[in-house]
Model the fold of this input.
Amino acid sequence: MLLIAQIILSILSAVLTIYAVWKKPIYFFYLLFLLLLLGQLARIPLPITDKGILISDVVLPLGIGLWYLQAVLYRRPLQTTTTGVSILLFIIIAGLSLVTNLTELPGGELLEAGFYLFRLVSYLLLYYMALDVLKEKNNRKAFLQGLLYATIGLALLGVLQFIFIPDFTFMAEYGWDPHIGRLLSTWYDPNYLAGFFALIISIYFSLWYFSSKKSSLQMLYLLIIGICFVLTLSRSGMLALGLMIGILGVVKMRTLLILVIIVSSLAVASNERLQERFLGLANGAIGYATGSLDHDIDITSLKRIESWEGSMSISAGKEILGVGYNSISYRKLSKGLVTDGNIHSASGSDSSLLNIYLTTGIIGFMIYFFIFLNILWKSMGLYLSQHTDATQKALGLGFFAGLLGIMAHSFFVNSLLLPFFLMVIMPFFALIELYRLESLDHQVDKHS
Done:
């Protein structure tokens, strides 16, 4: 029954994609938000991979392809930006990394790796579509509202899951981690979900804080998301949100920083499970920093360290261009590092940046890292500029803090390469770029 519903949803999504791209492109982003809300429920089986694929993995290439076709037919040139050029360079290197490893991968593995590379390219190229669609200021407002509503829906579905399905061990046979007593929502993973909630809190709290007309309803939304964030009990999420709040507090919002420290301290002191997670985070951080195992590092952290060490071993002799995009699970199986390639964690290394290094080498890693550093620089530039309005400053500071937090988060989970994150981060890259170009135009007009 669920499969039938997923197939019907796939067909409807494809039809809506075609209509949206040609008639109302902002609707395409609404569709992506809906698929983000449905999470792993919007996953369909595919012969090419035992894990199946998300409906967005099909819809996005279709939408991007139609949009580029439309741009060609109407002779609409693509806007050149440093971010866009860097994305294209990374795509080229990722393709070369797979080509240089063609002879080492069996046919089935090569086909699957090629599919996932194609998928990654589709999500990265969403940047260009967003750069065009979000030129219209009404579309920017619609985009921000749609994303907030989707996040609220994700949080509320998480509450229902937390109440009615607190024990997720029955999903272990399908490759998912057997979490108990944690909020997972439709993503089936509290760590990814916590990182996403943290990013949304950073961006939208900043927008609320800088607004001249502060909405009590939006603050209620943020409070709901915040409570759901706590229920994920995610240490990587705590690290991300803590870094975000620290940046926002030090740069602009001192009162927020003090308030959060007080509330967090009370929450941890009154909840034994939170104490356990917080102490695990602290001990893990000390262990990672010192390389010592004398700080009672828990089994999850130890497994993550083992995953990093094992993953690094597959890169020997492949440091320049990597082992080929999305071929990590095959390499691990061939070296005996994992026994089941169908487990979701087998295809990564518990770290986005490490994944990038392993699969695209030092060249791909440097380009990918530059993309994020470039956006961080432009985001903070928006906040510091004298030629930006309150909304631009708010988005600049909120996204700067949020992106830094997610980069820290990605050291422990593969968040920077997760489709749900990419379908949000890429449009925000475009939005930052558009605001920056507008502020530069305003500066030129003022001096002319």
The mean pLDDT is 85. Strands lie at 43-46, 49-54.
